[in-house]
Amino acid sequence: MTAISLDLDETLWRLDGVLEHAEEATVAFLREHYPAIAEAYPPERMRVLRDQVARENPELAYNVTALRIRTFEQAAKAVGAPLRAAEEAFEVFIDARHRVELYPDAMPVLEGLYREFPLVALTNGNADVHRLALGHYFVAAYSAVHVGAAKPSRPMFEAAARGSGVPIERLIHVGDDPETDVSGAARHGLRAIWLNRSGALWPEYLPKVNYEEIRTLDELPGLIER
């Protein structure tokens, strides 16, 4: 049996502007409900604080959710705001983060593939296919937050293999990022497919690996069958 793991951001949906919009929504929430935090930590200063928290807490390197919450907690403590502000602000952020626009080819391909193959969602971010009503297409979904590692490291692909119930060498990985998706998958023995929507050249800083290339997800079913 063969299974397919799919990256999410910029593979199934556009990410352009999504994180920026989520941060804007969070700022608006803080201004309304916790103005002391918003005044002391405007967006640029909040980013500086997040970088500081990341340096001081290396264990959060792969947990972008905990990193944002910890950052909001530090900001709340600094101005004497209640710690519940951190959880509330993060909920605003994560809700807006999931307001994405699927690529037109995403749903038709998912609809066709999940009837033939076990599908696994695999992301370094904190997107959740269940929050997007896409969960029924996938037998499992893993993020770097859950695995404690990020693509291109092997544990992510091992998790996908376990979740789909196939040996890792029977797993096909599809993604848009040459380094984390394509090079990572190929180096760990997976069949790697680069979704190269823009027709970009292979990055010079990356060694060549064995991969196949498609420009749209519409090409994926035919490529797998070949």
Helix and strand topology:
Elements lengths: L2 E4 L6 E2 L3 H16 L1 H6 L2 H14 L7 H16 L4 H14 L3 E2 L3 H8 L5 E5 L16 E4 H4 L6 H11 L6 E5 L2 H10 L3 E5 L16 E3 L5 H6 L1
Parallel strand pairs: 1-4, 1-6, 4-5, 6-7, 7-8
Antiparallel strand pairs: 2-3
Helix pairs in contact: 1-5, 3-4, 4-5
Structure characterization notes:
The protein has 226 residues and is of the alpha/beta class. The chain is 46% helix and 13% strand. It contains ten helices and eight strands. The protein has helices at residues 18-33, 35-40, 43-56, 64-79, 84-97, 106-113, 144-147, 154-164, 178-187, 220-225, and strands at 3-6, 13-14, 101-102, 119-123, 140-143, 171-175, 191-195, 212-214. Strands 5-4-1-6-7-8 form a six-stranded parallel sheet. Helix 9 (178-187) links the parallel strand 6 and strand 7 (191-195). Helix 1 runs antiparallel to helix 5 (84-97) and helix 3 crosses helix 4 (64-79). It is elongated. The two termini are 15 Å apart.
Low-pLDDT stretches are none
Q: N-to-C SSE series?
A: EEHHHHHEHEEHHEHEEH
Number of helices: 10
Task: Write down the overall geometry.
Answer: elongated
- Determine the mean pLDDT: 97
**DSSP summary, beta strand count:** 8
Largest sheet: 6 strands, parallel
Oligomer: single chain
